């Protein structure tokens, strides 16, 4: 029946390892890679506005700041906005900076974050791209009007040209830059695939009754197991709790080491 | 009766703003401040081991790395260990680096993380301090033995001297460095106090029956309210959702903007 | 006779090790230390303008950026200004940001960089300090007028109070913050003292005629020697050129490895 | 006649803007770009050794550190080695880390920095590339022996396979990675081309006798002029000296602002 689960399901997307690797750490690298491969832009000194300071936005901003870009943030959530402040970014409304920025990046999970009005006000050669959830963050449809000319300059790169000659550089027609114009490192794929495989194994092996027709978070211990399988690549050496320490902390020596909601 | 709550309680400690500000952002500054005020140590080029890569450890490591220290991490939790790897830190067992490091910092919430055996193996002039939860992280008691001489060189700074002349520089007798040897910025106090005040107001104003004799997390919306009250200090400008966007995201335009477990 | 050297002199101030350590690396730490000890200010999210992007300015800016401050630069030299751009800082005139910043830091070697007019326009609680060459960079004299009240709030910290109640926080009466309100690490002193001692030894031992009544730069090889003496503190291991490599590079295996003007 | 200049020449290569842009700032970006385009490697957590800590090495290291790599340095010059220490890098001999690193990068200007012996000891999948001056830094010739198999896996990427199956990933056959596998931003080209054009104009316009048949450094003032022409791209606003300040500093208000040797 529509809208009703027939079997138990595991929400692997919200596991910590999946979240941090696919989002924070992977995007920190793929924003640079995607922009370089498509536009050869130099990051040093560029003014960039990043819409959204969740995990993806945090990753993009850290990388761009490190390479000498000046980054502005837009946010709707005061907690994320305050984090942006503490990390050294000005929190602005898009309109305040849209005329001056060299690059606009969306990472919101929202729609119509960059509107035709914003696009009209961008300066010549402004690069616009999306690292968020789908091709709705930038209102690309609004650019399909007769007075604007589209020119495909290379794969995944369109120049949208205004009547006065101004060009906006649109990447991947507003689809996800990290999927369209960058590659996903095998290391990240390995973490994601391991998480999915473990979830399936757990569902298959679980005694009857443990999971009902509902959506479950991956048990913390399995999340930790995924991480521990990937530590040897980094020659990382975990410390073991002594019996005495485990007792003091009220933990099992083999984990889980944190509550389920820990991020 | 012992062990039983007579009134409802609010766990303000686990609210996001409290966690991030008192831990991550505040410790990022107070580790530098505490070490400078007590020892005048230069951070550039120093080898430092930080035990524990939770919020406090992440803050300490970010600051020390930024100022040119070489930082090693010890961890028991594979997820935090993997985060340390991705942030550019070697994850080691304490014994692997204890002979070579210039500074040892504990941020674990655990006890006896630095033992007498470790202290015996440290090099001359090694600085030892605690940013974690109490004075049990470093086994200071083990240093109160006849063969070791204690010399108070200034307030909060003891030299513990081995028979061969080796000195270990112990700060605040293993108590919290950030409380003993640094100051807490008024900004952080304001966030913490606001959170506590809002929790009390909520408990006082809540209609009968909303809270029972149990411990509650601060509602997400209040956490967001605390953050929003502090944004003007940074001249930060929040973006408002349009009706259409709020509907698309399934959110109220005034928040809460994230699930309760979001960190 | 006035203005005439009677003996040879060595300009140790312009040796590389002296310049980089006393200026870039030392100031990177002492700006944080000096501000914390005097004002307990939190750096995260603060807007700071740094006047001058030479070695001292570069050090100050790197540290402040790393701790989450938003930093603006003023410069007179287009080369330094371009470097500031590439390092991710907005280059502005002081007037453009003076109303909005939380901290003003001078590192110019110039005089009257911060004038009474600037001071009049600062916002309440703005912190003003000098990391440059002397107490002339901030026009402190202009604040000694009857309508302004001075209040000493602690050692090295004055509140200058305008008739409308606005307070500017002046540190060390405009003298050098790093000397007045911070300490100089022994490591930096050691480098400076070694450089001076070697210069004296060189002058004393030099065969007659090598040095005339003039000012000389420390020979590059001695500069390198000062550095090599300090490498063991960091357990740093130098690589030696093979004979073949030395020949290829046209260098003596024992240095000097760079031309005199290399920085 | 061989070895004798027939006309005056300008050494544009050693001008500040050329040096910093082509080397430090450009390489900071192209090391990431070159490695991504050829190998899709994830930088987070990777162990990297960079041979040489001059301008190119400094740029490479800053970028890799910022993206979470653990970077080791080899150096022959104690001054550069000490700078590496202060910037937070372990200075080692190549042999100390060659078995453990994931990436080897040469930036020395020297030859045979990575020898067959080093290549024999690298671990499986180690990436080797050159950002220095020519294809002699890695002894690629030593890999053309019968027991090793070369496999071209994509353009600019060879797997060199040892009899036991170990593969070393050699990029651009040891030629310059930044030229072979990355692109040069137009901004950097503009700076270089402007410097060259100005040098030619100066030589052409100079009154007879100003330049003889020798090699000259670009006058500082022209170097500053190149920089000033590029500031508007960043919307950077220079501050002008007042007459009084220029007199105090002993400078012309229009520059040059620094001595010729300033870097």
From TrEMBL, chains A, B, C, D:
<feature type="domain" description="S-adenosyl-L-homocysteine hydrolase NAD binding">
    <location>
        <begin position="23"/>
        <end position="184"/>
    </location>
</feature>
<dbReference type="Pfam" id="PF00670">
    <property type="entry name" value="AdoHcyase_NAD"/>
</dbReference>
<dbReference type="GO" id="GO:0006730">
    <property type="term" value="P:one-carbon metabolic process"/>
</dbReference>
<dbReference type="InterPro" id="IPR000043">
    <property type="entry name" value="Adenosylhomocysteinase-like"/>
</dbReference>
<dbReference type="InterPro" id="IPR015878">
    <property type="entry name" value="Ado_hCys_hydrolase_NAD-bd"/>
</dbReference>
<keyword id="KW-0520">NAD</keyword>
<protein>
    <submittedName>
        <fullName>Adenosylhomocysteinase like 1</fullName>
    </submittedName>
</protein>
<keyword id="KW-0554">One-carbon metabolism</keyword>
<comment type="similarity">
    <text>Belongs to the adenosylhomocysteinase family.</text>
</comment>
<dbReference type="InterPro" id="IPR042172">
    <property type="entry name" value="Adenosylhomocyst_ase-like_sf"/>
</dbReference>
<dbReference type="InterPro" id="IPR020082">
    <property type="entry name" value="S-Ado-L-homoCys_hydrolase_CS"/>
</dbReference>
<dbReference type="Pfam" id="PF05221">
    <property type="entry name" value="AdoHcyase"/>
</dbReference>
<dbReference type="GO" id="GO:0033353">
    <property type="term" value="P:S-adenosylmethionine cycle"/>
</dbReference>
<dbReference type="InterPro" id="IPR036291">
    <property type="entry name" value="NAD(P)-bd_dom_sf"/>
</dbReference>
<dbReference type="GO" id="GO:0005829">
    <property type="term" value="C:cytosol"/>
</dbReference>
């Amino acid at each position: 029946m529509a809208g009703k689960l027939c079997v138990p399901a595991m929400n692997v997307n919200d596991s910590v390892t999946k979240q941090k690797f696919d989002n924070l750490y992977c995007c920190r690298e793929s924003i640079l890679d995607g922009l370089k491969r498509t536009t050869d832009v130099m990051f040093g000194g560029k003014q960039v506005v990043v819409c959204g300071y969740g995990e993806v936005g945090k990753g993009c901003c850290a990388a761009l700041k490190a390479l000498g870009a000046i980054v502005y943030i837009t946010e709707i959530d005061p907690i994320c906005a305050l984090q942006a402040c503490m990390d050294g970014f000005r929190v602005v409304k898009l309109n305040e900076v849209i005329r001056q920025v060299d690059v606009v990046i969306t990472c919101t999970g929202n729609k119509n974050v960059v509107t035709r009005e914003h696009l009209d006000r961008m300066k010549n050669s402004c690069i616009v791209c999306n690292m968020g959830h789908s091709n709705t963050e930038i209102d690309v449809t609004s650019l399909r009007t007769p007075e604007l000319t589209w020119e495909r300059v290379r794969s995944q790169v369109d120049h949208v040209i205004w009547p006065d000659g101004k060009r906006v550089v649109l990447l991947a027609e507003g689809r996800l830059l990290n999927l369209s114009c960058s590659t996903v490192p095998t290391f990240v794929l390995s973490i994601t695939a391991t998480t999915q495989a473990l979830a399936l194994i757990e569902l298959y092996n679980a005694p009857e009754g443990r999971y009902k027709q509902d959506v479950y978070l991956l048990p913390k211990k399995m999340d930790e197991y995924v991480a521990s399988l990937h530590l040897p690549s980094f020659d990382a050496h975990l410390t073991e709790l002594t019996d005495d320490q485990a007792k003091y902390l009220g933990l099992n020596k083999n984990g889980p080491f944190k509550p389920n909601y820990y991020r």
